[in-house]
Amino acid sequence: MGVFKSKNHFPVEGRTILVTGGSQGMGKGIAQLLAGKGANVLIVARNVQKLESALEDIRKSARDPSTQRFYFISADLSNPRSAASAIDQATTWNNGSPPDSVICCAGAAHLGFFVDLDPAVFEEQMGTNYFSAAYTAHAVARAWLAHPPTPKKSPMALEPRHIVFTSSLVAFLPFTGYTAYTTAKCALRALSETLSQEFLLYEDHSPMRSHCVFPGTIFGAGLDTENALKPEITKQLEEGDDGKTPEQVAAATIKNLESGDELITVSGLLGKAMKSGSLGGSKRSGYGIIDWMMSWATTVILAFVRREMDGKVRAWGKRKNMGKIKDDNM
Ligand SMILES: NC(=O)C1=CN([C@@H]2O[C@H](COP(=O)(O)OP(=O)(O)OC[C@H]3O[C@@H](n4cnc5c(N)ncnc54)[C@H](OP(=O)(O)O)[C@@H]3O)[C@@H](O)[C@H]2O)C=CC1
Ligand SMILES: CCCCCCCCCCCCCCCC(=O)[C@@H](N)CO
Question: How far is the CA of 171 from the centre of ligand 2 (A)?
């Protein structure tokens, strides 16, 4: 049956994988899934209590608890020195080799209308969502180049090492209320795609791959926190997405990594359609046929979707008298 079995581009058994934001939500889901597939897993986040309790659950998901190893590192990854130190600690723990792959899930959304946000939020959102991943990637790419890969199977086979970024469906279509967050998530897409090309420089001696995941709504504590600040109109615009559990998002992410996708969606047809409408010069999945055919439909559909969304936003502003100068100010 070997002929029909396609290559697994993301083997994890016996590998060491670092997951940022691994203490809850999607990151924890991914860490548990990788543990179940036989990987050694490190998780990084700030809050130690959450890290400890997540690590317990990850350990319980292990395929073989007698051989697999698990560890947590507490670090604020929006600080470049802390991110570099986290990769150093991970390398020391992993007997001197950097983690084989890194999955960056750390992130959080601060919602609100642009004019209502304190300017500090723009910087915080870049730190939490963009710099946390950029600094982690920078530190691990340097470590990878300093530690050439050791062949896992035959002497000739060099397994690529992978860095995975987590963006969002909001990177494909504007959603009112998300300015501070979406800009950081779009920056992650640009980083991932530029890196995927730049990594080709090292293809012969130190193959590396970068990927970007674009989840839709993920249920959990992160979503509950962001919803407290989310404008009603934003909730209306997001209604087309039913949402997924962290476990569903984790499973779809790993499945797509295994099939070798660079840009990964995890929301069924909705995600595939939104992605295909924004491909430009981006890498297609497989031979690109499905992306290409789908894009015929979505360039048309998305124009209508956008019109409908804009109509909702315009009507909302009108109903709430937004932007109107109060009479007593005149
Ligand atoms: N929830 C959703 O609807 C969607 C989420 N996403 C993105 O998917 C990812 C996962 O989302 P979700 O499952 O909701 O995540 P959660 O909010 O549940 O968890 C976020 C994780 O990131 C960690 N983290 C946050 N900031 C930092 C930091 N500065 N340094 C280190 N760790 C940090 C948190 O731990 P601690 O606070 O202890 O540091 C926690 O482990 C995020 O990047 C999010 O932006 C994308 C689309 C939709
Ligand atoms: C053919 C195209 C049809 C388009 C339909 C539009 C509806 C899609 C809704 C998507 C909702 C956005 C979810 C991500 C939110 C997010 O990233 C935050 N929650 C972060 O925490």
Answer: 9
